[in-house]
Amino acid sequence: MDFIVWSGQQDGRTELNEVVKALQAKLDSLKHIIAWSDYNLTKQRFPEQNVDQLAGLIEVGAVKLDEAVAYAQYIIYQNMAREIIRQYPALATFQRVTYENIRARIGGICEEIKKLSERRICHILANMSIPYGNGSGRKKDYTDLCLIMNEVSKKKRHVPIRQLINRAGDALMAMKPCFMMSPLSVAQYLGQRLSFDLLVMDEASQLRLEDAIGAVARGRQLVVVGDPKQLPPTSFFMTEDIYSEIEEEDMTAAEDTESILDICQVNFDTRRLKWHYRSAHESLIAFSNKEFYDNELIVFPSPYQNDNSLGVNYHYIDGAKYAKGKNRLEAQKVAMAVVNHFEKTPDLSLGVATFNTEQRDLITDELERIQKNNRWLESAIKSAESTEEPFFIKNLETVQGDERSVIMISTTYGPDVNSGIVNQRFGPINRDTGWRRLNVIATRAKERVVLFTSMKGG
Questions:
Q1: CA 264 to chain CA mean position, Å
Q2: Burial 217-246 (b: 16+ CB within 10 A, else e)
Q3: How confident is the model at residue 110 (pLDDT cuts 50, 70, 90)?
Q4: Is the pLDDT of residue 302 over 60?
Q5: CB contact set of 446 (below 8 Å; sequence gap of 6+)
Q6: Does the pLDDT at position 239 exceed 50?
Q7: Is the pLDDT of residue 248 over 80?
Q8: Which domains are seen in the chain, by residue range?
Q9: Sheet of 392-395, strands arranged across
Q10: pTM of the model
């Protein structure tokens, strides 16, 4: 009987040729025996996940093989959801409308608190006592509010800014307790009298210690903000490294660091911000997250996976050639894409980033040429330049700190105009800090990156 079942016979009679065929079929299937064993073990291991039921449907053809993955994912996610609801019963009564109403109320309260905080600050400042200072005798002896009022009434021969701040610093700080200046401006305009309760340095990866130290000395507390994986201080116009011949053991910490951010990371407590707020689509930060941030950034998945208005768009420019720092056909395509953007989506802020200054200037020239025959474009660009996020065309050395809804990137480099070969020379990208430049240029967009290139992936 066992042989009958094994051979697939139903009526108890087995012909010799049928036995031969059954034996041959089994021999031919020997190479699948391990997979078949694993298949049966898997069915037995997960009975509560309904895997065996899905397997049965596949075996009888009720579920097609190309649909099996989707069915399996549905079963897995359904079981996960049930387990989560079992652990957190409150989710069983969750209603999106209720949640959205609570979220809207909290958002409204936050906005109200923000406005009240602004009014409170204004109230405190309006009631601050402004030092009157000295307003008698020779004008060179005027100080504080008296000096400021005297300067306001003048049309020429104003007191130099540094001298004004030195003589009227207390009054200026009473009226404007928050100063926003570059470190070099601090050194140029602020004397020794003024000091601040809190000093905040942004984009600190680009601040050399020698440029920042003067500002640091004027603060009682210091907060240094920056990304060590973005651009270091520029060295284009610097002479050979003055520390290159000093033995490492003889260096101080200041001599062995590029920026104020580097030395602060070594000597003070640091906090890493992991919530990537900017990208509306995970593909915008996926490259940098994987290559530079060890996949540690918290990125919120977008529900729109196949929407060209979000994420990264790749445009290969067939026939484009690179010569002497320029890629003319690529520049023309980028310029036309800018025109199309202002024609169809002028409400979205736009920036163009290039890999060198030559390509930046070429795209600017192409766009100006088009504007001569399209006055509406000139008007649209001027309107965009007066917004909070103005339209720009920049090379990668100057784009750090900018963010726009849409960023168009011209990779510039491509097949050589003479040989047709893509030479492995990519300007600043080939330098030791080239990866930082790639990180900067690839992370400027909030909604969409449009990549224009005459190169293909390997």
A1: 23
A2: ebeeebebebbbebbbbeeeeeeeeeeeee
A3: very high
A4: yes
A5: 278, 279, 280, 284, 403, 404, 405
A6: no
A7: no
A8: 17-89 (no CATH), 131-177 (no CATH), 180-271 (no CATH), 283-453 (3.40.50.300)
A9: 311-316, 445-453, 404-410, 350-354, 392-395
A10: 0.67
